[in-house]
Amino acid sequence: MNMFPNSFDSAPKIENWFSFRENGTVRMVSGKVEIGQGINTAFMQIAAEELDINPERIELSAGDTRDCLDGGCTSGSQSMQTEGVSLRKAASAARMLMLEKAAELLQSDINNIEIKDGEFFLNGSSTKLSYWSLAKDVKLDKSVEKYMKPKTKEQKRLMGKSLKRIDLHDKILGKHKFIHDLEFDQMLHARVIRPPSASSRLISIDKEKINSLPNIKKLIVDGSFVAVVSKNEEDAVQLVNKVNKQCHWTQVKTAITDPIEYIRNTDAPMTLSLEKGNIETAEGTNISTEASRNFLCHASIGPCCSIAHWGDKKLSVYTHSQAPFPMKRTLSAIFKKPEDDIDVQHYHGSGCYGHNGADDVVLDAVLIAKELIGHHVRVVWSREDELSSSPLAPGMVTKIDAKIGSKGEINSFDVLVKSPPHVKRPAGKNGEYLLAAEHISSPITPPNPIDTPLNKGGAADRNSVPLYDIPNIRVRKQVVYDLPWRTSAMRGLGAFVNVYAIETLMDDIALSQGKDPLEFRLSNLKDERVIAVLEQVGEISNWGSNNPDTYKGIAFSRYKNIGAYCALVAEIKVDEEIELINSWAVIDAGEIVNPDGIKNQIEGGIIQATSCTLIEEVNFDQEIILAKDWETYPILKFNQIPKIYVDIIDRPEEPFLGVGEAAHGPTAAAISNALMSALNIRIKELPITRDRIISSVNG
Amino acid sequence: MTNKYKINVNGIDQNVEADENTPLLYILRNHLKLKGTKFGCGDGICGACTVIMDGLPIFSCDTPIWAAADKEIETIEGLSKNGVHPLQEELINEQAGQCGYCLSGITMRVKGLIDKDPSKTVNDIANELDRNLCRCGSQTRILKAVENYLGKLS
């Protein structure tokens, strides 16, 4: 299934995007959903620009399958680059169609008519015509591609303005209705009792004992899928432990004691991702690295939640999934129910950083609702589920061998990426990859997913190709399918470790030649946009001068090699543990819609990446995931947060570039490079914990 | 055991009937329909459920209703009862949030801490917020808003 469909395949007409109302509002449809990144604010800003209206007139419907517009999956930092561009065209088409009607009524040339906040002015005078007065008479059933005429750079007024997020006001006041806050009459509350590890299954369950427990409305057992339903949420929560005591599960032993070592030694088939020049004939001194990262949790603050209602005909689902339309097709496949009989509506959830359990909890809710026809059934995951039942971000290992010529030139980079799969999103065809789908009595066996090829952004090998001027490059990957844990996409996918490997190796090469890491990078680059962000981050961070006891490191990447450019300097203090003091970033995201929105994403990316770099890793006991609460899976705290400075280079002539994942790899590498500068040690295994620093210094 | 309890929430006396061990969080969200307070972990670690009880920030997820009986509770809804609270104004000005899920708990802890001791610095607050987590990484903006708020108080 295409996760990034062309918007005009499902929504070719203007009416699929906009409708004008006589009360002076505009209904706008978005296929992309708010997951904490502020996309819907940027989209409204784009539409308001093209329509020449106050953005407050827009009423948004996003991620609702009752609308036509299939936005696929809101992921991969793709929203601006794909639907954002289509939306601009659709809004311009709406404007042109309305202008055409106004010109006809006014018997004037379109060029003499100006629109101010939806009102039409002819040669500067009011005409009493507006989008609202024409709403009844103009049919919007025309092709976007026939009417579209986006504004020129000179005509734009709203681009580059930091409009406030449309949703934050109510979120700050505690008034926003998150998915967790929805209520329906007679709504029932359910909780799922999970097998203790990925491949353990139910041996027996004492249903009689369970059904005699107080406050139980229904026990559902379908294979190894066990759920308990109650009228009250607090009772459902209380019942989980009591039900679990009556369940006996198979205990699964595994020989894997160190998953990263297992990945490092994999004999999985090796595939070639890219070959440039001839790696075999490249000559020079060998410098290499082998970077690795342990498995990570998504670790949203609010656990996954969904509400489902199985009616006489219709199945209605409320979700914070990134992919409402693909979810509808997936449910259709699992329950053999026509797509037309399924509605999926998106509501905001807690922050989403990739493929977490949002899709899984939908299947939980639907499986339960099917047994309680006519009731809304609400499922909320526990903290333990959120950490240990969501797909994990895979641990991975990236090895690079570089050959350096006699003049210090980089002759070759030979990259080998080893990783469990990064993309196991429900694909619709058979309903595979959803957690409960593997537990029900007729389980849906998940096939090995295809690791996205590099020409589509890559997955394990994302950002494995250095942008430096290197004549011979080879990238190979081994996708490790035989680990027991569910792994899928988390912010950056393979880019996090691949950028870490490339950018720490670049520093190692520079230092081996006694060169300044920034100067060395610049001397190996041709792309002017890369050079610009690096030079500017050098300037704003006062690169080259250190305060007493602080050390700086630099790193760069362009996300997926086709997305936003991010150059970053980290300044640390180190005394057994690293303390990140300052972080400077310079971003080039093409044409800027909302500068503060970009800054917010980069700041958040830097903080989250710092947490992943210094603290986060999943520990295992055999097959059991030990991340169960915030003590077994800690994240960065308020008193560990650096000061952050973000500069943006605006390029109004260039296409939008998504920024959501741009800062992750550079943050990790810049911190590591600062540590190199401080203690002359290179930690290759992430996270860079106190223990690893001490053993590296002593070793 | 189900009992009757009286609690004062945002200045209004409320009578609730619940099992004595029911967490205050569920009383607020499900009995009183005050959905601004969030569930995060149920263990009293992440702080998403923070409310103010008799002047002190507490975790409502691990405070049973019996322990909240006859106490004064302030929730995020109480903060903006008479318009937007100045702390919230600063949060809005700084656009201090991404998903916004953690904000209610953080706001209540900051408000409780500063009400109790207005001489606190932004560093004090950052240290005392170590039991409120934010995963999206809005901490710099939240602390900037706190700093602005403290500046206006003094």
Write structural notes for this entry.
- Chain A has 699 residues and is an alpha+beta fold.
- Chain A folds into three domains: 7-159, Aldehyde Oxidoreductase, domain 4, CATH 3.30.365.10; 180-251 and 298-388, Aldehyde oxidase/xanthine dehydrogenase, molybdopterin binding domain (Aldehyde Oxidoreductase, domain 4, 2-Layer Sandwich), CATH 3.30.365.10; 396-423 and 459-698, Aldehyde Oxidoreductase, domain 4 (2-Layer Sandwich).
- In chain A, 28% of the residues lie in helices and 23% in strands.
- In chain A, the strands form seven sheets. In chain A, strands 9-10-7-17-14-15-16 form a seven-stranded mixed β-sheet, with helices on both faces.
- In chain A, helix 2 (39-51) packs parallel to helix 3 (80-106), helix 13 (495-512) runs parallel beside helix 17 (664-679) and helix 16 (595-614) crosses helix 17 (664-679).
- Chain A is globular.
- In chain A, 56% of the residues are buried.
- The mean pLDDT of chain A is 96.
- By secondary structure, chain B is an alpha+beta fold.
- Chain B has two domains: 2-77, Beta-grasp domain (Ubiquitin-like (UB roll)), CATH 3.10.20.30; 86-153, [2Fe-2S]-binding domain (DNA polymerase, domain 1), CATH 1.10.150.120.
- Helix content of chain B is 39%, strand content 18%.
- Chain B has helices spanning 24-31, 65-68, 76-79, 86-93, 103-116, 122-128, 139-153; strands spanning 2-9, 12-19, 50-53, 56-59, 72-74.
- A five-stranded mixed β-sheet of chain B has the order 2-1-5-3-4, sandwiched between helices.
- In chain B, helix 4 packs across helix 7 (139-153).
- Chain B is globular and about 45 Å long.
- Chain B starts with a strand and ends with a helix.
- The model of chain B has no long low-confidence stretch (mean pLDDT 97).
- Chains A and B meet through helix 6, helix 8 and helix 16 of A and helix 1, helix 3, helix 4, helix 5 and helix 6 of B.
